[in-house]
Specification:
Blueprint (H helix, E strand, L loop, with lengths): L4 H11 L6 H16 L3 H6 L7 H15 L4 H5 L1 E4 L2 E4 L9 H13 L7 E5 L5 H9 L4 E6 L2 H13 L4 E5 L13 E6 L4 E2 L8 H4 L4 H4 E2 L6 H13 E10 L5 H10 L3 E7 L5 E7 L11
Parallel strand pairs: 3-4, 3-6, 4-5, 6-9, 7-8
Antiparallel strand pairs: 1-2, 9-11, 10-11
Bound molecules: glutamine.
């Protein structure tokens, strides 16, 4: 027999109780019904006597089984929101994080309004950063790279859904050639920065479902991607150009030192809303001056 919405919400709470708190389980139930019926939370509560038909029941039941296996809800529903924009996700891309929204906010505040800036997003994944920037900075020309063709396909679909023009290219930032050096006003990257040693501390919903190529870096060289991107940015940024990174909270000072070594100026670290050192901004070095920075 098909359950009502209310019965199913109760079932989710009960069956997920060893994985999620009652509040989280309620939130997950709502995301499922929002996806199915477009309901707000209030609408879900007002309509909780609605009976689910066969296909709806099958959908919610399957979603519940996947949640029990700790799969992120965003992969189950195939979509999420980033910066208020719809973003499709699948196992080839990371689920966009709220702290990355804060990085985008910082970039938008740092670009003079109405200026036709050239922007590059390195390791774009779902395309969330590039798409939010293209949307919020309509005069910007946005280019985005990723090593994974599957990720680029997802990012291109997301750009289409959000009606923005972005030039996507498959590139390995560790193997760039001189022809890749083009002038940019802003270069941004959220590269892999989680050390292999941190694996055992990671929740299973991240570890078992998110693409490791986007997350992990070897313990012996955790700044590998930051070094490659800083070197590229040093060559490619225009005068007054800016480099932005999302970083591992344990590596604020080492990233700052690395950037100073490439001559970057005004290097600024920022915490995310959870109080973790999570973002860096730096200005293009003046040519011929590699004396370090502040
Ligand atoms: N912030 C992500 C996490 O905590 C990691 C993203 C990355 O490696 N760039 O899982």
């Amino acid at each position: 027999m098909q359950p009502t919405v209310k019965e199913f919400v109760q079932k989710i709470r009960k069956e997920l109780s060893d994985v999620y708190s009652p509040h989280e389980a309620f939130q997950l139930a709502w995301l499922i019904f929002e996806h199915l019926f477009g309901w707000s939370k209030t609408e879900m509560m007002l309509n909780d006597h609605t009976k689910l038909n066969d296909s709806e029941h099958l959908f919610v039941q399957k979603a519940l089984e996947r949640l029990k296996n700790h799969e992120p809800i965003q992969y189950i529903l195939g979509e999420t929101e980033f910066f208020g924009l719809p973003i499709k996700v699948n196992s080839s891309v990371l689920v966009p994080r709220p702290e990355t929204e804060e990085l985008v906010e910082w970039i938008i505040q740092s670009v003079p309004p109405g200026k036709p800036v050239d922007v590059l997003d390195i390791g774009t994944g779902s395309g969330c950063i590039a798409i939010a920037l293209a949307k919020m900075l309509p005069t910007a020309g946005v280019r985005a790279w990723d090593i994974s063709q599957e990720a680029l396909n997802t990012a291109a679909e997301n750009a289409h859904i959000n009606e923005v023009d972005i030039c996507f290219e498959q590139k390995d930032v560790l193997n760039l050639s001189s022809s890749d050096v083009k002038p940019f006003d802003v270069i941004v990257s959220n590269p892999p920065y989680v050390r292999e040693a941190e694996k055992e501390l990671m929740p299973s919903n991240v570890l078992n479902y998110e693409p490791h190529v986007a997350l992990f870096v070897s313990d012996s060289d955790p700044l590998l991607f930051f070094r490659a991107i800083a070197e590229y940015a040093e060559a490619a940024l225009k005068e007054n150009g800016k480099l932005f990174f999302e970083i591992n909270r344990d590596f604020g000072e080492p990233v700052k030192k690395l950037l100073a070594g490439y001559g970057f100026k005004n290097i600024e670290l920022r915490e995310d809303l959870s109080g973790n050192c999570r973002m860096v901004k730096a200005d293009k070095p003046v040519r011929g001056n590699h004396e370090g920075s502040d």
